[in-house]
Amino acid sequence: MDNVPGMTTETGQQATSAQHLRDAMVRQLIDLGAARSPRVLAAFRTVSRHLATPQVDMAKAYEAESATITKTDENGVDISSVSAPRVQAMQIEQADLAPGMTVLEIGSGGPNAAYLAEMVGDQGHVVTVDIDEDVTARAERFLAETGYDRHVTVVTADAEAGVPVHAPYDRIIVTVQAADIPPAWIHQLKDGGRLVVPLRMRGMTRSVAFVRNGERLVSDDIQLCGFVPMRGAGENRMRLAVLHEADGEEVALRLDGHPEPDVPALSAALYEPGTEVWSGVTVGGMESKDHLDLWLTTALDNLPLMAAKPAARHRGIVAAASPIGIPALVDGGSLAYRTSRRTDDPDRWELGALGHGPEGQKTAERLVEEIQAWDREHRGQQARIEVHPAGTPSDRLPSGQVVDRPHTRITISWP
Ligand SMILES: C[S@@+](CC[C@H](N)C(=O)[O-])C[C@H]1O[C@@H](n2cnc3c(N)ncnc32)[C@H](O)[C@@H]1O
């Protein structure tokens, strides 16, 4: 681009140290596998993202894994942020952008729109929309300060209706968690265009890269991610079934269309000693379990994610905890959740399940059977996710798990 990003308000010394931080961030993005294309790397080397979050340390703004929360609601739920560079780079790679494209970003912040502007160049156009006027005002200030305002149009609106005035788009990148795909997003995308969206299916959110094929979307890449929840007409929050409540030690099931659990029975079961069942399947310490978990939710019907605070793990109430949640198979008053133990190889862990309640062992065995099935049949593969309009008859859907939402029928299948 012909501007010199970030130079308007920085001294020469600040600009030099920002450039060092950007270069280090780009090396981290490569190491994490989040970015590889030369044009993506160049964009991340260029944008002065720290100017969007003057409230945080400049070094923090360039940490690859660090998101900056910019707004929290009255219940303490994060509702706006500048996403972590790793997540932004991953989605931009998924979008496969080229110069001259028209792109819609849903959920604004500033830096990501600037990266998109770098990717589409002077002949391209970026539209960024946010439901929150505080956010769009902040994004506008950042884009003006860094010189990207010439290539980015900022709109304040509920993105449920897309932004028809600038459609059709070559790419739509959603940067807020969505439980459904509004028809406007499909219709405002060119046929063959790509929609990248953090889609929540049965409690699990994945950044899915879809290609539009008529009225249908078909995935070609799926990555683990976490995003703030959608607000406005598409709001669809998960409900928490709290199994254990003590200061800072909460354990809860996140319900997303799952049957109503028997909370008193499950809660009592959790306090009783559990039964471990081991699978013989091992994973590397750094190996992601996101495809396994997506397989488990395809294969098993009642598998909400169990969220537990680290303190609950330290007190021994649960044996495993993760901020994203751990799949837990529920069967009446019994439950079993995925866990792991060290093997003789210091970098490998064996997967298993810990069952609680009268049917705890059987439930753990069932979960372990599906861990073994994944290892045998699906390890190293990605699921295929398709989005069809609501009302599509079941016999016209691909085989697999179906997630019904108000606008769409989402299918998850495995090769
Ligand atoms: C993670 S932030 C966006 C981060 C941004 N893309 C960046 O530069 O990193 C998600 C944003 O989505 C916005 N949002 C939530 N619901 C929305 C809706 N229905 N329409 C448009 N924006 C929405 C929130 O206000 C929030 O600012």
Oligomer: single chain
Widest beta sheet: strand line-up: 5-4-3-6-7-8-9-17-19-18
Question: What's the shape?
Answer: globular
Q: Provide the domain count.
A: 2
The main sheet comes to:
10 strands, mixed
Beta-strand content estimate: 25-35%
CATH topology of the largest domain: Rossmann fold
The percent of residues in helical segments reads: 25-40%
- CATH top level of the largest domain is Alpha Beta
- Looking at CATH, the homologous superfamily of the largest domain is Vaccinia Virus protein VP39
Q: Whole-number average pLDDT?
A: 94
Task: Report Rg.
Answer: 22 Å
Query: Would you identify the regions where 5 or more consecutive residues have pLDDT less than 50?
Result: 2-8
Structural category is: alpha+beta
Structure commentary:
The protein is an alpha+beta fold. The chain has 2 domains: 12-229, Rossmann fold (3-Layer(aba) Sandwich), CATH 3.40.50; 239-378. The protein is 28% helix and 31% strand. The longest helix is centred in the N-terminal third of the chain and has 20 residues, at 12-31. Residues 2-8 have low confidence and may be disordered. S-adenosylmethionine binds at residues 79-83, 88, 105-112, 129-132, 135, 158-160, 175-176, 227-228, 230-232, 234. The site of S-adenosylmethionine has 30 residues, from strand 2, strand 3, helix 5 and strand 4.
How do you describe this structure in short?
The protein has 415 residues and is α+β, with helices and mostly antiparallel strands. It has eleven helices and 19 strands. It has two domains: 12-229, Rossmann fold, CATH 3.40.50.150; 239-378.
